[in-house]
Amino acid sequence: MRLEDFDFELPPELIAKYPLKERHMARLMVLNRKDKSIKHDIFWNLPLYLEEGDLLVFNNTKVIPARLYGKKPTGGRVEILLTDMLKEHLWYALVSGKNIREGLCVYIAQDLSVNILKHISEGKFLVELLSQDPIKALYTYGHIPIPPYLEREEEHIDRVYYQTVFAQKEGSVAAPTASLHFSEELLNRLDEYGIRKAFITLHVSYGTFKPIKVSDIREHKVDEEYMEVPEETVELIKKVKQEGKKVVAVGTTVVRALETKPFSPFSGKTDLYIYPGYTFKVVDAMITNFHLPRSSLLLLVSAFAGREFILSAYQIAIKERYRFYSYGDGMLIL
């Protein structure tokens, strides 16, 4: 398949620039792969489409304020977007500014500077955070790296809403957006319906959103991202499968984590790239947002539900004025 087979035109006004006040009031498109039916609902009613004993698997990663603004010794402005945490003080980063070179030290604040250690490729560098407590310094001076298509600066609301209510493990530079729809009230409602939940960790990096630059989708490579699938989650998945219930991945990051080492606990890097033709081994159903055209995320969803079904659903979503992308609405694919 060619990349152009996964394109669509989106009216720009359908890009959700801000989140809804009530997370669970986002619209939910329900796709059934067996009969190719499509229903329209809201996330609050998600339990009605699941069965008692089904398992929702969430990503408990936490977004950190990974965008830094600083100055060179000459006074020139520099923007640094931390993309992959190697250690608390050691990161890969996208660095923009004039004459960025190895050995440059960028001043952020009195107790935080960034040392440019090594040029990796294009605007990507290995950098060192010079601070006694790098993570604390990021929360003090960093900005939440909201997506560029929002076409605005970070606001206070993003500190709350561009984060899941169960975020726990710091390390992501983007939110696992399918989980943004889950409020404490909705999680409690799912408990009341007897729907189980489990967690994995996948630290979302810039690689998740890296544009595909090849026409033949098979030639694309995704960057490695750190992930953990704990033993208790694997055991629960096996139990659910034995009972004939569904494993529902909440978001594409969860899909990739569960499919990296099927039915096995795992801690390490994944570069699993899922595109049409892939055979899913663990995931029975999926919750996901509406993705950008020509993106690896759209390819993953198309691999699960079929390209034609997904693209026709996207056209219906456009006609029905669904809200798109990170702060937008979502779909449940059964």
Automatic annotation (TrEMBL):
SUPFAM superfamilies: QueA-like. GO terms for cellular component: cytoplasm. Pathway: tRNA modification; tRNA-queuosine biosynthesis. Pfam families: Queuosine_synth. One of its GO terms (molecular function) is S-adenosylmethionine:tRNA ribosyltransferase-isomerase activity. It is found in: Cytoplasm. It is an enzyme of class 2 (transferase). It catalyses: 7-aminomethyl-7-carbaguanosine(34) in tRNA + S-adenosyl-L-methionine = epoxyqueuosine(34) in tRNA + adenine + L-methionine + 2 H(+). Its EC number is 2.4.99.17. InterPro entries: QueA (IPR003699), QueA_dom1 (IPR042118), QueA_dom2 (IPR042119), QueA_sf (IPR036100). GO terms for biological process: tRNA queuosine(34) biosynthetic process. It comes from the Bacteria. Signal peptide: none annotated. Keywords: Cytoplasm, Isomerase, Queuosine biosynthesis, S-adenosyl-L-methionine, Transferase. NCBIfam families: PRK00147.1, queA. Transfers and isomerizes the ribose moiety from AdoMet to the 7-aminomethyl group of 7-deazaguanine (preQ1-tRNA) to give epoxyqueuosine (oQ-tRNA). Monomer. Belongs to the QueA family. This is S-adenosylmethionine:tRNA ribosyltransferase-isomerase. It comes from Hydrogenobacter thermophilus (strain DSM 6534 / IAM 12695 / TK-6). The lineage of its organism: Bacteria, Pseudomonadati, Aquificota, Aquificia, Aquificales. The gene is queA.
